[in-house]
Design a protein that fits this description.
Distance between the termini: 61 Å
CATH superfamily of the largest domain: P-loop containing nucleotide triphosphate hydrolases
Largest sheet: 7 strands, parallel
Bound molecules: adenosine-5'-diphosphate, zinc ion
Structural class: alpha/beta
CATH class of the largest domain: Alpha Beta
Strand order of the largest sheet: 11-12-10-13-16-9-17
């Protein structure tokens, strides 16, 4: 029997169900291959990349049929064994080929070799003190070499590129010194890092009693490597410090840490907090990194040089070895759900990793998702609460303004008397304010005052938003824009009127009320550049602008000490979404926005303007009463049989014509109802199955129809989902996709 395994079981990197199986290749004698290594293999007439799942010394296949691996692609296994298992689990759960799930486990750019290690030439002195003196003497006629010897006398390694700043064209001289045996020139890898090295480590603050209490529960759990917590801490209660202390405990045990943060909150502010405490042990993964930076951060984690990872959703797959702790900050965020194939929920993946790798898990939020809080109440998570802000800072005082009343009093503007008054006071006191409206653009719709025609997108069944900056009508679904027409396309009249308000309109109105006050607008339109997000935040932090106007982008996680007033221009917008989570989203959004006010020594005030002041989501948000909201929302979900009492499942059909989309959805509906009747044998499995147009009937020219289901979770719901998945794979004349508890039901 051969010493090293002769065969490898390989998954080829092709995203297709047809090739979703293990292929056996022989391993050429001179390669040593570990499971998890990426390899190049012959496949049909092509060469494709693949990943070694396993190796064996024998195979039952005929030797003549087995092809040989061409070469390994990396010198180390890119995917750790337990992450291979995790990929298998994800492939199974989301019904996707294993090759696709494996792609989650390493930077995309590694495929097809699109990213490489960066190296640089480094010079180092090889001489001892006496020999150095001798060499300097010998080179006294060669000032460049003499200077270089002096520069290198610290015996540290000096990148040649850096020496260039001090010595003109140093390479020929260095080569001579190398030949003489005085200096070594070697190629060394450079890590591309978006962050400057951290020189000093920030000291830890004294923990608040609340933080201590919470950590008394978490620390022992980190030590034994198990325990699931839901940390419900009001905004400004100091949750980040709890993560930091838990992470410190974990690192002290030589175990690794993953901290997940929604992309939007993953600002340099948060990163610098962690790097300030942990230095280069902390690696950062987010989508704004360049491919090279991302690859290098990933490799620092893979090699163990970085043992703490802060990152957005996909960082849950970071190749941390001996993982001891996962933190999911702002766990209620919809961005933890990946809607791409493979679909996954980073919270579920975190839970699975924590169990597999014996790590402790902390989900945290000021507004936990209804799902997680229900799980905590059921005992799946241990609930930890922090009710107070750090240093006894008060939660902001919230004023609810009924905009119907304003109208009755003759105020037709979008700012209530109270908000105008409070803005005046805030600015006079030299403080900063934030104005929030969850809609970008100038006006969400433009209509004709003569015939009532509403300007709509030709490709999508949605109203067009007017943008003042370019005087164009934009579709927020397909991205197309057209000039505002001179006359109504229906009746020819010129009475086109923008109605409603978006961020641009709010900014304009504000400037009319407070001329000369500097404002910053932050929404998807102003943050398209690579660093524009950060630049705007810095501008605001520096005090150069006094008021920030923005969408939900400004609602989250930001910590601006000078902000004492937050105005919510219209709270009802998110309530009107066609989604069973509209109430939950509204509550979360308002609570988070309110949490931006008064985070430092000055107390904060919040003005929430609404047409529905009696709605429980708005009322409980104004009172900052999480439990009050949860109880009412939970009761409503039970009554209407929404998750967590059922699973919302949708089959979405997108076709070129309305007839086709409805035809396909009708056929799907028939198949589904038949299957359910057959399977159920009299037992109720689905509480509701309905076929209809989707709430948005057309997007980007495709007509949308759906089969919507509420399924009871039980032991054969997996079977139902597998059936539905297979159903979508059939040869339909249009696109059909399966969505399980999707983040949007539009
Ligand atoms: P949360 O994430 O719960 O909203 P943060 O973690 O952002 O709260 O903390 C709010 C503020 O309190 C931050 O400015 C943070 O630096 C500060 N802070 C947190 N813990 C302490 C502490 N123990 N002592 C002093 N300041 C603290
Ligand atoms: Zn008209
Ligand atoms: Zn459109």
């Amino acid at each position: 029997m051969p010493e090293s395994p002769a065969f490898a079981q390989v998954i080829v990197d092709i995203a297709s169900n047809n090739t979703d199986r293990v292929y056996t290749y022989s391993i050429p004698a001179h390669f040593k291959l570990l499971p998890g290594t990426r390899v190049l293999v012959p496949f049909g007439h092509q060469k494709v990349e693949g990943l070694v799942l396993d190796t064996s010394s024998q195979t039952t296949l005929e030797p003549g049929k087995i092809k040989a691996i061409i070469e390994p692609l990396d010198v180390y296994p890119a995917v750790l064994p337990h992450l291979v298992d995790l990929a298998k689990e994800i492939a199974q759960k989301s019904h996707c080929p294993l090759a696709l799930a494996l792609r989650l486990m390493f930077p995309t750019q590694m495929r097809q070799g699109r990213v490489k290690e960066k190296t640089q030439t480094v010079a180092r002195l090889l001489l001892d003190e006496a020999a150095l003196e001798e060499a300097i003497k010998q080179n006294h006629r060669a000032p460049k070499r003499k200077l270089l010897l002096n520069l290198l006398s610290d015996r540290l390694s000096h990148p040649v590129a850096e020496l260039k700043a001090l010595v003109r064209d140093p390479l020929p001289s260095l080569k001579i010194l190398e030949e003489a045996g005085a200096v070594s020139l070697t190629e060394e890898e450079v890590y591309r890092s978006p962050y400057a090295p951290v020189a000093h480590k920030d000291p830890d603050p004294m923990l608040t009693p609340q933080q201590q209490e919470v950590l008394q529960e978490i620390v022992p759990a980190v030590r034994v490597g198990k325990g699931k917590f839901l940390l419900h801490g009001v905004t400004g209660s100091g949750k980040t410090e709890v993560y930091i202390q838990s992470a410190r405990e974990c690192l002290a045990l030589r175990r690794g840490v993953i901290v997940l943060i929604p992309e939007i909150v993953l600002t340099p502010q948060m990163v610098s907090w962690f790097r300030g405490r942990f230095g280069d042990v902390a690696a950062v993964l987010h989508s704004r990194l360049s491919a090279g930076e991302r690859y290098d951060e990933w490799r620092r984690i893979r090699s163990g040089a970085a043992r703490l990872v802060i990152g957005a959703r996909s960082a849950v797959f970071a190749p941390v070895r001996d993982l001891g702790l996962i933190v999911v900050d702002e766990e209620h965020e919809a961005s933890y759900l990946s809607e791409n194939n493979p679909r996954y929920d980073a919270r579920e993946v975190a839970q699975s990793r924590a169990e597999r790798e014996k790590a402790c898990l902390i989900l945290a939020s000021a507004t936990p998702s209804v799902l997680s809080f229900a799980q905590a109440q059921r005992g799946d998570y241990m609930l930890l609460e922090m009710h107070k802000r750090v240093n006894d800072r008060q939660l902001a005082t919230v004023h609810l303004v009924d905009m119907r009343e304003e109208l009755r009093l003759g105020n037709r503007g979008m700012f209530s008397q109270l908000l105008i008054e409070k803005l005046g006071e805030c600015l006079k006191a030299g403080q900063q304010a934030m104005l929030f409206i969850n809609r970008r653009g100038y006006a969400p719709s433009v209509f004709c005052r003569k015939c009532g025609e509403v300007m709509a997108c030709r490709q999508c069944d949605v109203k067009l938003t007017y943008h003042q900056a370019d005087r164009m009508l934009h579709c927020h679904y397909c991205g197309q824009f057209t000039p505002l027409p001179e006359a109504c396309p229906a009746c020819g009249s010129s009475y086109l009127k923008p109605v409603g308000a978006g961020t641009q309109k709010v900014e304009e109105e504000f400037r009319k009320l407070f001329p000369g006050v500097q404002t910053i607008r932050m929404d998807a339109d102003t943050t398209t550049g690579k660093d524009s997000h950060e630049q705007l935040l810095n501008q605001f932090r520096s005090g150069a602008a006094r008021v920030m106007i923005g969408t939900q982008m400004i609602a989250k996680g930001l910590d601006f000490p000078q902000v004492t007033l937050v105005g919510v221009v219209l709270a009802d917008l998110s309530l009107n979404m066609p989604d069973y989570r509209a109430q939950e989203r509204t509550f979360q959004l308002l609570t988070q926005v309110a949490g931006r006010a008064g985070r430092a020594d000055m107390p904060g005030e919040v003005v929430i303007q609404t047409y529905k002041p009696e709605h429980y989501a708005i009322l409980t948000a104004a009172q900052q009463e999480y439990r009050g909201f949860f109880n009412q929302e939970f009761a409503r979900r039970r009554q209407l049989l929404y998750p967590p009492f059922t699973m919302m499942v949708r089959l979405l059909c997108e076709a070129k014509t309305q007839e086709q989309s409805r035809e396909v959805s009708a056929q799907l509906f028939a198949e589904v109802t038949q299957f359910l009747e057959r399977r159920a044998k009299g037992k109720k499995r689905a509480l509701f199955v309905r076929e209809d147009e989707a709430p948005i009937k057309r997007i980007m020219g495709l007509y949308r129809a759906q089969v919507l289901m509420k399924l009871l979770e039980h032991k054969d719901s997996d079977e139902i989902l597998a059936f539905l998945n297979e159903l979508t794979q059939k040869d339909w004349p249009c696109r059909v996709s399966l969505e399980i508890n999707p983040s949007s039901l539009a």
